[in-house]
């Protein structure tokens, strides 16, 4: 039987009077890749931040491998280590080398031994093609390279679930691919992932399941083939059409 890695039940999240996520339910199986798409402001980042315990929720329950995410306390810190999150802005420490950036949390937070973590970090850097950059500083790297370091930093915590929030949105087009290929590699390795992206070709390739959120509600949930070829709802159709262009030339 496949284990449920993440379970969200009746999640309600609001900021003040405005409801952001409204009775949201989602289950993610171990090894599953769920891609979350939807218009800007629909609540995608908020959802990831709730899963990572970065946002208080008003009601509902979020469980990671059967453990409920509490709002605060020691348990939250422990649980958060099981969840790796990578954002649009990589937020590497500028005064630390690539390797030191990666080692920081495993050594300081997880109290693991340096030789062990360093070995793992180097293996991960090699896997994303950046072993030769281990002793560089962030400002000496391209955006795509920095983002791959940020992914390695998250992986080095040995998380059980990986959350990616528009990790290529700030990159030049030629760097998008090198980062998305790392995500596809992770998916092939069987990692459990929730990926928010506007890269539709990538979404279709990497997803086991696509979730379309609109106004804080899951409007549609389907296989990538079904979602991209025959969306069920008018809103999803409109959303997908916003990625195509037409020009009506005068004859
Ligand atoms: N810290 C906050 N305080 C108040 N409103 C917020 C905050 N963060 C996000 N929002 C609002 O929540 C809604 C969803 O935002 P977000 O989750 O960032 O959307 P998405 O990632 O899908 O673009 C938006 O209307 C946004 O303005
Ligand atoms: Mg967002």
Structure, described:
There is one protein chain. The strands form 2 sheets. Strands 6-7-8-3-9-10 form a 6-stranded mixed beta sheet, with helices on both faces. It has a 4-stranded antiparallel beta sheet with strand order 2-1-4-5, covered by helices on one side. It has helices at 44-51, 74-80, 98-108, 114-127, 143-155, 173-188, 200-206, 224-229, 234-241; strands at residues 4-15, 18-29, 33-37, 59-64, 67-68, 83-86, 161-165, 193-196, 209-214, 217-222. The mean pLDDT is 94. With 251 residues, the protein is an alpha/beta fold. The termini are far apart. Bound molecules: adenosine-5'-diphosphate and magnesium ion (MG). Adenosine-5'-diphosphate binds next to helix 1.
Q: Rg, please?
A: 19 Å
How many strands appear in the DSSP assignment?
Answer: 10
Class of secondary structure makeup: alpha/beta
Could you give the order of strands across the largest sheet?
Answer: 6-7-8-3-9-10
Number of helices: 9
Considering DSSP H and I runs of 4 or more, what fraction of the residues is helical? 25-40%
Spell out the key features of this protein:
9 helices; binds adenosine-5'-diphosphate; globular; binds magnesium ion; 251 residues; six-stranded mixed β-sheet; alpha/beta
What topology does this entry show?
Layout: E1 4-15, E2 18-29, E3 33-37, H1 44-51, E4 59-64, E5 67-68, H2 74-80, E6 83-86, H3 98-108, H4 114-127, H5 143-155, E7 161-165, H6 173-188, E8 193-196, H7 200-206, E9 209-214, E10 217-222, H8 224-229, H9 234-241
Parallel strand pairs: 3-8, 3-9, 6-7, 7-8
Antiparallel strand pairs: 1-2, 1-4, 4-5, 9-10
Helix pairs in contact: 3-4, 3-5, 5-6
The chain binds adenosine-5'-diphosphate and magnesium ion (MG).
